[in-house]
Amino acid sequence: MSGTSHLAAHSDATPSATAVPPGNTPGQGRRRRRRISFDKASFFAVALLLPLAVYVVFVISPFVQAVYFSMTDWSGFTADMAFVGLDNFARLLGDEKFLRAMLNSALLAVVVPTVTIAIAIAVATMVTVGGSTTGGVRGVRGAGFYRVISFFPYCVPAIVIGLVWAQVYDPSRGLLNGVLTGIGLDGMADFPWLGDTRTAMAASMFVIVWSFIGFYTVLFVAAIKGVPGEIYEAARLDGASRFRTAVSITVPLIRDNVRTAWIYLGIAAIDSFVYMQAMNPGGGPGYSTFVISQDLYQTAFSKGQFGYATAMGVVLALVTLLFAAVVFLVDRVTGGGDDVRGHA
Amino acid sequence: MTDHTTEQPVSLENRRPRPAAGHDPARHDPAPRDAGPRRLTRAWQALRPLTTPLGIAVKYTSLLIAVACALIPLVSVFLAAFKSHEEFATSDPLAPPGNWFNLENFVVAFTRGGMLQGFVNTTIILAVSLVGTILIGTMTAYAVDRFEFRGRRLVMGAFLLATLVPAVTTQVATFQVVNGLGLFNTRWAAIVLFMGTDIVSIYIFLQFMRSIPRSLDEAAMLDGASRLTIYARIIVPLLRPAIATVVIIKGIAIYNEYYIPFLYMPSRDLGVVSTSLFRFMGPFGAQWEIICAGTVLVIIPTLIAFLLLQRQIYSGLTSGATK
C-alpha cells in the first residue's frame, strides 16, 4: 500500500490547517498547535503505523494475492500455476450453479437486513420509548427482561444455531412440526421445511434473522437512548401518532446506525456460510439455499480448483462492494447526509 | 464512513399541526405496530395500567411471541442436555428430562470433548487478542481523530474497504500468509487474525473519541504532557465505556468463532470451546444430547458476561453510536 510511506512522510510535516475532517463534527475546534516534535512524530508513528502494518499484512496483502490467484489455474495442492487471465471469470458467467448461488446471495442481501432491521427497531422502540407510564421516557414494563432475552441468540455460536434449527425443522420429530400438529395443523406432520424448494430459503432466512436480531436490538436501543427525550415530548405535543413518531422521529434520528447496520447485515447475509452449511450442506433442494461461499468452499477444497474458487471469491467481494455502494447511494438519494428534515 | 447526524434539527414545525389537543407532554410511546390509539393517550394516563386493551394487547402479544421465538429452541437445547441418549431419541423436544440430575452429558462433554482444554485455549486467545484489539483500536482512533495528516481519509477508506471484503475471498491467501509466518497450528494464528481484521472496534473507538473534548488534550499538552501520557492517562480512561462495548462484542465474536480455529489450529491440543463441541459429530452419527450439554456450558459464560457488562455496553454504544 503506497499510503504507508506517504503517511510517514506527512507525520512530521506541519499539519495543514485546512485539513478536512472525515465526517462533520461541528463545534469542535480544529485548530492545532503548529509544533513538530519528536514526541508527536514518534507517538504518531507507533499509534498509526503499527495497526496499519498488521492490517496490511493480514488484510490487504491476502486480498492482492487473491486477485492474482483468481487469474490462474492453480489447483491448490501443487505449486504450479499458469496465468490464465480472465478465463476463470468468463467461465463463471456460464456456470449455472454459480449463477444460482449469486441469485440466492443477492436475495439474502435484500431480505435479511430489511427484516432484521424492521424487527430490531420495533423491539428497540418498545423497550426504550414504548412505555405507557407517565414521567420520563421509558419502555414498556419488563423492558429489561425483553432486552436481555432478545440478546440470548447472539450468545450462541452461529454453527450451533444452524444445527439447533436444523433439528427444529426436522420433518418427523422436529419442534416446529410438533407445535404445528399440536395446534391442529395435521397437514404439516411431515413437512420438510428445509427439504422443500418452496420453504427452504425462507426457513433458512428466518434462522439468520433470528440470530442477528438481538445484537441489532442492542445497537438500536443504545442509539434511541441517545435521542433527547424532549424530541419525543414535542412530537407528542404536536399530536403525532405513535407509529408516525417511530417512522418520522426515531428512524431519521438513528439513521446512521440503520445504514451501518444495513451494511454489516448485508455482508453477513451475503456470506451466510456457517448457517447454510449447518442446515443444508449440499445447497438445499434444487440448490435453493446454495450460496457463493458454499460454492467457493466446494470448488476449492473438494474439487481442488483454487484458482477458479478464488475467482468466485473476487466476484463475491465485488458483489459486497456493490451492495455497500447501493446502500450509500440509497441513503444519499433519500435525503440522508443533510438532516432529517427531508425525510420527515 | 462519514457521519451525517450532525446537530439533529428535527424541525417539528414542519409536521402537520393537529388539532387534537391536550396530550401530556411527558408521555411518549411511539410503538410502531399500533398506529391508532392516539386518542387513547388520555385514557392511558388516567387508567393505567388497566386500560388501552388494544394497544397493550398488541404490544405485549408481539413481545411475547418474540420471546417465545427467541427462547424455545434454546429451551429445547437446555432440556436435551439432561436427557439420556435413548430418551433424547424418543421424547418430545420440549418434554422435560426424566431425571434433572442426569449430569452425565456435561461430564462427557467436559472430559472426552476436551472442553477444559478448550476453555483454557479460548481464554488465552480471548485475553491476548482483546488486549491487542483494544491497544490497536484506541491508538488508531487517537491518531486518526487527533492528528491532522493528509492521508487520513485514505486510511479510513482502507479500513472501511477491509470490512467490505468477505473473509472467504481472501481465505486461501490469508492461509499462505499465516503459514509463511510460521503461525499455522499455533494460538498466534487465531490471535493475529482476530487483531488484524477488526475494523468495527476501531469505528466504535473513533466515534466515541469524538465525544471527548479536545480541550482536555490541549490543557494537558500545555501542562507539558507528552502524547503518550495524554493517550494513556486521559484518552484511555475516558474511552472506558467504549472499551467495555468492544470487550463484549468482540469477545463474544471471538468466543463463538468456529471457522478460524478450525482452519488454522487443527491440532487437538489447540481445540477451542467452539471446536470442541464438534468432537461429538463423529463418524457414528451426532451425539446430540452431548452437543446440547456442551452448548449449555458454552453459552453460560457469555450470558454472565453480557448481564454483568450490560450497562457499560449501552453507554458505550450510546455515545459512540449517536455521533
From TrEMBL, chain A:
Pfam families: BPD_transp_1. Residues 102-327 form the ABC transmembrane type-1 domain. InterPro entries: ABC_transporter_permease, MetI-like, MetI-like_sf. The keyword Membrane applies. Residues 1-32 are annotated as: Disordered. The chain crosses the membrane at residues 41-68, 106-128, 148-168, 200-224, 261-278, 306-330. CDD domains: TM_PBP2 (cd06261). It is a multi-pass membrane protein. The keyword Transmembrane applies. Keywords: Cell membrane, Membrane, Transmembrane, Transmembrane helix, Transport. It is found in: Cell membrane. This is Sugar ABC transporter permease. It comes from Myceligenerans indicum. The lineage of its organism: Bacteria, Bacillati, Actinomycetota, Actinomycetes, Micrococcales.
Automatic annotation (TrEMBL), chain B:
The keyword rRNA-binding does not apply. The chain crosses the membrane at residues 63-82, 119-142, 154-176, 188-209, 230-255, 286-309. Gene3D superfamilies: MetI-like. The keyword Transmembrane helix applies. InterPro entries: MetI-like (IPR000515), MetI-like_sf (IPR035906). Pfam families: BPD_transp_1. It is found in: Cell membrane. It is a multi-pass membrane protein. CDD domains: TM_PBP2. Residues 1-38 are annotated as: Disordered. Residues 24-37 have a biased composition (Basic and acidic residues). Residues 119-309 form the ABC transmembrane type-1 domain. Keywords: Cell membrane, Membrane, Transmembrane, Transmembrane helix, Transport. Belongs to the binding-protein-dependent transport system permease family. This is Carbohydrate ABC transporter permease.
